[in-house]
Request: fold
Amino acid sequence: MTNQTQYIVANWKMHGSRALAQELCPLVQATAGNVQVVICPPATLIAQVAAQFQQAGAIGAQDCHAEPEGAFTGDISAPMLKEAGANYVILGHSERRQGHGETSVQVSAKAAAALSAGLIPIICIGETGQERADGLAEAVVAGQLRDSLPKTYANSKILLAYEPVWAIGSGQTPTLDNIVRMHRFIRSQLPGARTQVPLLYGGSVKASNSADILGLEDVDGVLVGGASLKAEEFKGILDSAVR
Ligand code: PGA
Reply:
């Protein structure tokens, strides 16, 4: 753990409801100390969940546009997310990179827009299974990192998440040793002003492996998809965070 705070970020993806927020809120309220919980529901639920959670946890969005406003049908800007009650925004998730053709250069522009609106970007990077098999994991991650980091706002807060694409929703995770190695590598690639950024791991985190992952050197939190939608699982993950 490089930072004092441990981050538990719940990425609901295109799941969830007001009822789910109601169920999870008391669990999040019960976490204390240096654990920062960030709930990232679909954009339609941000205002509602922000009102429900109040001080219990922070709220994040799952994407934003690089422009503050304009003729971009279906998109949502960073200032709009901020006004709705978000404090964070996930950017460059592999499901955006793969399903929406998002490039690292676009991610970097979105991150700058988020920072300018007062949101903290959570920038995701990670290699596919094929890239790992081809021995390209580090090269791919280094390239994504170089191009996805905002070129401005060197001193503004961001979070990074290493999410190997093959581990997302698959039930497979890298070995603990491989997580440590990749996190060390990522940190070695960071520009000077950013060497201390919180670095999260994501991909098939669940109650049964979260304590081991959160206990690793250089892991400052976890980005949780599927397991953040099940109260019991999510409670297990929250309980495993170092207090
Ligand atoms: P998962 O998803 O925990 O369901 O693997 C993680 C993510 O996509 O952020």
Observations:
- The CA atoms of residues 127 and 139 lie 9 Å apart.
